[in-house]
Amino acid sequence: MNEYLKSDGYDVVVIGGGPAGLAGAVRAGEMGLEVTILENRDWIGGIPIQCVHPGFGNFYFNEDLTGPEFSYKLIEKLNDLNIDYHTNTHVKKIVPVSDLKKKLEVVTPEGVFSVDTSTIIYATGARERHLYETGINGDRVGGVYTAGEAQTLMDIDGVLPGKEVVVVGSGDVGLIVARRFALEGAEVKGVMEMLPYPGGLTRNVAQCLRDFDIPLYKRRIVKKIIGNGRVEKVITADLDEDLKLIEGTETEVKCDTVALATGLIPYTKILDRIGVTMDPSTRGPVVNGYLETSSPGIFAAGNVITVNDYVDYVADQGELAAEGANLFIENEGLPTKNWISVEKGRNVNLVVPQFVSGEMDTVLYARVEEPEIMVTVKIPEIEKEISKRSVNPGEMIKIELEKEDFDGGEDKITIEVVN
Predict the structure, then answer these.
(1) 167, 221 in Cβ contact below 8 A?
(2) Are 140 and 176 contained in the same domain?
(3) Same domain (yes/no): 367, 356
(4) Domain count, the chain
């Protein structure tokens, strides 16, 4: 195999050119590390390129930006630091030569190459769940899109996928694409959500559905798609408290388009091949406080570790991964050896990172299992308490811990939500 670009290799190779990868590369460059980005699409910027709505950058840039504006600001920083990036570059394999050296096999239009690096920031994001993972039966016809595909058609290609739309799933992507269809003149017949509460942020429920008079049907699913060549209608049905189908509640909804917003799955295929430990609750890699995976020197950031509410969090994680990579290189491994396990307590579905050091300020991101009001988020081992008027699975709980919160004797901490 030929050497790819720098024959002496890199300090950091970033896999993925979305917000997490861009922010990580910029931070690595600012610290003087030799860094490059490998992106398998033909552009960098990630999914925000197609997100022409505002709501990006409020925390990271202290500005209310559209998705393309957010990405462009990071790309400007990248160019100012003369950091190179390579599009249409698919990482086929990671080979951990040793704890301090990795080799990547990459495929490009020019051929197959090898890249040497000391550390990796894995920022591949998450993929959409497609039709055949949803359990929806019926005809295989045109007019069925993932929400991201529909969004790309409207925002990048200027094509309206359909005029009468049913959206499946009320996560943030589903809410935003429902609004986008409405803005383009389509009639959104409804957003179908199988759970008894919406899956997205409260602000998106208000701004995307209520403001546009789009109905949200909770505990309701699309059971079947019917059509001849193109979607003609769907059969919906109600679910009971145990999420089982209630017979006799089937209703026909005439439509020509179904947009699937049925969740995102972290893209971990390359990490799976080298045996990186995964967390069943996040479906992403287990990481420590520097976002290092179970494979030394391989860091992960963004939606690949857990699906985030805000792109700002994704960019923060990219920076943290870069700082971890820098420490790894300086110390030939991370200085912290005795990691404190972060456990899930009452009404906590997931938390990242899964290990903290107690030696640095740390941000934990958690999600609850079910909505509650007037609660307290507690970490009993360090006597940390945060009062919340409400919590729900669609909104992350961000917990900021200072190193002074730890006394050095903890071997674990527990996140729990109590009322």
Answers:
(1) no
(2) yes
(3) yes
(4) 3
* pLDDT for the residue 419: 87
Whether residues 175 and 235 share a domain: the answer is: yes
The answer to whether 266 and 304 are in contact (CB under 8 A) is: yes
* 96 and 113 together in one domain: yes
- The tokens for 109 are 């239009």
In this predicted structure, what is the pLDDT of residue 380? 96
**HSE-up of 126 (CA within 13 Å, CB side)?**
26
Residues 228 and 327 in one domain: no
Question: Could you tell me if 243 and 300 lie in one domain?
Answer: no
Pick from 279, 309, 335: which residue ends a domain?
A: 335
- Of 284, 304, 335, the position where a domain reaches its end is 335
Q: Which residues constitute the domain of residue 78?
A: 2-127+265-335
What does the angle CA 207 – CA 154 – CA 203 come to, to the nearest 5 degrees?
A: 15
CA proximity to 179, closest of 193, 167, 168: 167
Q: Is 135 left (phi over 0), alpha (psi -120 to 50) or beta?
A: left
Q: Is a pLDDT exceeding 50 seen at residue 3?
A: no
Q: Tell me whether the omega of the peptide bond preceding residue 54 falls within 30 degrees of 0, making it cis.
A: no
Q: How far is CA 319 from CA 19, 27, 44, 244, in A?
A: 10, 6, 17, 43
Nearest to 165 by CA among 409, 153, 156: 153
Segment 369-388, tens digit of pLDDT: 999 999 999 999 999 999 99
* pLDDT band with cut points at 50, 70 and 90 for residue 141: very high
Q: Which CATH number fits the domain that encloses residue 44?
A: 3.50.50.60
Residue 316, Cα to own-chain centre: how many angstroms?
Answer: 13
Rg for the chain (alpha carbons), in Å? 22
**Do residues 355 and 390 both lie within one domain?**
yes
Q: Are residues 139 and 36 in the same domain?
A: no
Compute the average pLDDT of residues 69-88. 96
